[in-house]
């Protein structure tokens, strides 16, 4: 299922929420940058929709500080030229006016996806190599240097590609301890690995979050 993050404050967004849900999207709705970043770090997102009426400190900080290569589309009440330029300067990929036409949004998402799609998306098993000494993964001959824990997590998931690996199994097999109720160490290591993939211009969705179950490795 395609996940979309909706950052806004208005009840009017409920209509957009239901329209997107009806089109097969799973919409995660938050109203501040902190919750948004948690979603960005734990989910593989199709897009981020940001209502420009979210308090400026939050929205500006989010646009400037974002790490994920996920497309950000700013939504505003009016087609204000100055606001549009401001949003694009801050790092937004596109801009839509309220009320949002879902069909237009889908077309824009498709365009952004084609524009940002990397040739590395066709990485195959034969093109991934592991250096157990230096904790480095080579994808399409591009080195990705990880910490020892990140490397072991990546390799463990890779060796079980196509299957969903539970958090409890990863915690036990890789971190060598039981998963606690409020333990976020595993999520942190997965998040850091995805961030390094993105910074290396590699597809971060090699590691997928399977909601309520765990993680999986998929090409």
Automatic annotation (TrEMBL):
Compartmental location: Cytoplasm
OmpR/PhoB-type domain span: 120-219
UniProt DNA-binding residue ranges: 120-219
Record Gene3D superfamilies: 3.40.50.2300, Winged helix-like DNA-binding domain superfamily/Winged helix DNA-binding domain
Keywords, ordered alphabetically: Cytoplasm, DNA-binding, Phosphoprotein, Transcription, Transcription regulation, Two-component regulatory system
Positions of post-translational 4-aspartylphosphate modification: 51
Database matches in SUPFAM superfamilies: C-terminal effector domain of the bipartite response regulators, CheY-like
Stretches assigned to the Response regulatory domain: 2-113
Domain of life the protein comes from: Bacteria
InterPro entries: CheY-like_superfamily, OmpR/PhoB-type_DNA-bd, Sig_transdc_resp-reg_C-effctor, Sig_transdc_resp-reg_receiver, WalR-like, WH-like_DNA-bd_sf
Presence of keyword Protein biosynthesis: no
PROSITE patterns attached to this UniProt entry: OMPR_PHOB, RESPONSE_REGULATORY
Protein name according to UniProt: Response regulator transcription factor
């Amino acid at each position: 299922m395609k996940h979309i993050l909706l950052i806004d404050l208005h009840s009017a967004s409920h209509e957009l929420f239901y329209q997107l849900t009806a089109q097969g999207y799973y919409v995660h709705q938050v109203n501040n940058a902190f919750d948004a970043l948690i979603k960005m770090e734990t989910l593989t997102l199709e897009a981020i929709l940001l209502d420009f009426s979210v308090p400026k400190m939050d929205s500006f900080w989010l646009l400037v500080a974002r790490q994920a290569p996920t497309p950000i589309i700013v939504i505003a009440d009016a087609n204000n030229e100055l606001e549009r330029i401001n949003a694009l300067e801050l790092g937004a990929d596109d801009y839509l006016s309220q009320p949002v036409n879902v069909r237009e949004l889908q077309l824009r998402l498709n365009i952004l996806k084609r524009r940002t799609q990397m040739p590395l998306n066709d990485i195959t098993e034969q093109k991934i190599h592991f250096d157990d000494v230096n904790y480095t993964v080579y994808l399409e001959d591009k080195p990705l240097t990880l910490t020892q824990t990140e490397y072991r997590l990546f390799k463990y998931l890779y060796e079980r590609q196509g299957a969903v690996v539970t958090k409890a199994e990863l915690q036990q097999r890789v971190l060598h301890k039981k998963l606690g109720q409020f333990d976020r160490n595993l999520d942190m290591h997965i998040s850091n690995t995805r961030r390094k993939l993105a910074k290396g211009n590699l597809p971060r969705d090699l590691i997928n979050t399977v909601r309520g179950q765990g993680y999986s490795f998929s090409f």
